[in-house]
Amino acid sequence: MKTSVLLLGCLLATASMAQSTSKGREVWEWKDANGVTHYSDAPAPGARKIVIVGATQTPAQSQPAPVLTAPGATPVTSARTSQAQYSSLEIWSPDNGASFFGADAPVNIRLRSEPDLGPGDRLLTYLDGKLIPNENAYEHTLSNLDRGVHSVTSVILDAKGNEKIRSQPVVFHIKQPSTVENVRNRGPAVRPPQPKPGG
């Protein structure tokens, strides 16, 4: 019986303490003739006031969800999100309208941005609308390109995929070297030099 009364008293105390914490009410404690402890929000003869230390609960602040990454990779958190504002993104090599001769001629693509790429941002470069491998690279070397006109452009995206800045496209040409030979320089058409009259 005493155990039941004691448990009931503890429950009442807990509820009373929670109520006093949120509303600022006082809690009183006393023991009856049987030694059973009682709690109340109103004072009683011989009761002592309990001082509750605590503060009104504040709403829990929302915490950013953890970012899962592959083992060994550096996690990208909101603290590493770039706030960079880019004033320029430029393809400075090759020159616009440049020509390269031969399918195996290497074409060096070089980029520059102001400022440099910020953490969390992505630098993507496209050849004829197709993504060139090696994301975030400021240099690419292309070869074995088809003969004709090609276009290169670059873009910087934020961590959510929103475009921050785009470069002007650069156009270049792949041309095949001429293999036509002058027929006059072959076979019977080749004649020894003729002596000059009077020579």
Structural commentary:
It is rod-shaped, with a radius of gyration of 41 Å. Strand 10 and strand 11 form a beta hairpin. The mean pLDDT is 76. It is mainly β and 199 residues long. The protein has one helix spanning 2-23; strands spanning 27-31, 37-40, 48-50, 88-93, 98-101, 107-114, 122-127, 130-131, 139-142, 148-157, 163-166, 170-175. It has two domains: 2-50, no CATH class; 83-175, Immunoglobulins (Immunoglobulin-like, Sandwich). Strands 5, 7, 8, 10, 11 and 12 form a six-stranded mixed sheet that branches. A three-stranded antiparallel sheet has the order 2-1-3.
Q: What is the level-2 CATH architecture name of the largest domain?
A: Sandwich
Total number of beta strands: 12
Largest sheet: 6 strands, mixed
- The first-level CATH class of the largest domain is given as Mainly Beta
Mean pLDDT, to the nearest integer, reads 76
Topology, pairings included?
Blueprint (H helix, E strand, L loop, with lengths): L1 H22 L3 E5 L5 E4 L7 E3 L37 E6 L4 E4 L5 E8 L7 E6 L2 E2 L7 E4 L5 E10 L5 E4 L3 E6 L24
Task: For this entry, give a set of tags.
199 residues; mainly beta; Immunoglobulin-like; 2 domains; six-stranded mixed sheet
Condensed summary:
This protein is mostly beta strands. The protein is 11% helix and 31% strand.
